[in-house]
Amino acid sequence: MLLDFTVENFRSIKGAETLSAVAASKSKSKASNSESGRRIKSDDEIAEPFHVEGWDIDVLPVIAIFGANASGKSNVLKALNYLLKFMSEGNYDRGAELIPFKLNQQSRESPSSFKLRILFDGTIYIYSLILNSNRILSEKLEYALVSTKRYRLLYSRFWNEEHQKFEWKNGSDFSGAHIQLEKNLQEREPFTSLFSKLEIQVIDAFTLWFSASFMANALSNTMYINVMWNLSQTSNPEFSPFLERAKKLLIKFDTGLHDIQIKKSKDNEMDIEVTAFHKTEQGEILSWKFEEESTGTQSLFNLAASIEFILQGYLPLVIDELGSNLHPNIVHNIVQLFQDKQTNPKRAQLIFTSHDNTLQRNNLLRRDQIWFTQKRPDQSTELYSLSDFKVRNDLAIDKAYLDGRFGAVPFISDEDEEPTNSEEKDKDNG
Question: How many CA atoms lie within 13 A of 375 on its CB side?
Fold first, then answer.
């Protein structure tokens, strides 16, 4: 599970900004007696977090980021996806996608940095990376077992500018023949990109998490069903139930579908043909190509497939602009799938951005699940949580948000007025 993610100097993000999935302390989420009397739910009643035994940590199943257009909320997710892809594929972009904050000369000439903290099988891993378009300047991996709770170094390397080479340190738990590979790494190639080829027990869980997280989120909407069907027909038949559940989920979303049939294409064995079935009022079953369905229905089928796949493990599903083409009730249902321990027993996570403020209404998202982005006076992105504010449990959060009480909304000036910066957020709002 993702605990938190920090990024600095990436696109609109100038200073270090942290997105955390660790639940706020219960003292912040407890309803008062008067609120309880009015049946206002506490945060834990809205969404009970995943409790991690031994660590005394509660992890949130859903994180939602709201903010004005161009405030940088999408860049937070782009930074996370960039890191996961870089860790998995190495120098895939040759530095082209690593864009620093350009509205400041010092930032333009400075490296970008990332820090990822995850928890898998009771072990916490911390991965840190600093790099620019030319080379990695620093890379480090640490871990802590629940039995000791003491962080131990697995490996680290720092670029020595004077000697034009990396200085390595390896922990005792990371010793072995594989360290000979350090000499062959390119200047912009992370060690993590080789982990899948190594048999090192101490990093197996970490490698599985970041590589699977990248692959799960890298599949495009047009590919997801195709890939899953082919996997189910070849080396991994256990993928077949995912598609069956995706079909049921799509029908549940009231798309008018009666059934869906998936079979191998006659023209290309690696492609599939999807047929949609509809039932008339007279009970007649009609069918046509799934491509004739609305764009929204087609996209929803791929989304349903990805949801059902993610719900099978500890992975995060990262979605930019969830609900942009969906009815709010469908988006609410998707959120509840991840919130409910019965439909999400394996502790998958959903991290998304949205403009749909109806998601902020009471009884769907906790206050520590709601995050905002807004632009500072220097046009850089500020990321912060609703739990930073003193907010009553019975406050209409969606209305207060549109009223600008938490910032993160666009300031639209009158035609004859100069635009002004948004007001500083008041953390004493009630």
Answer: 19
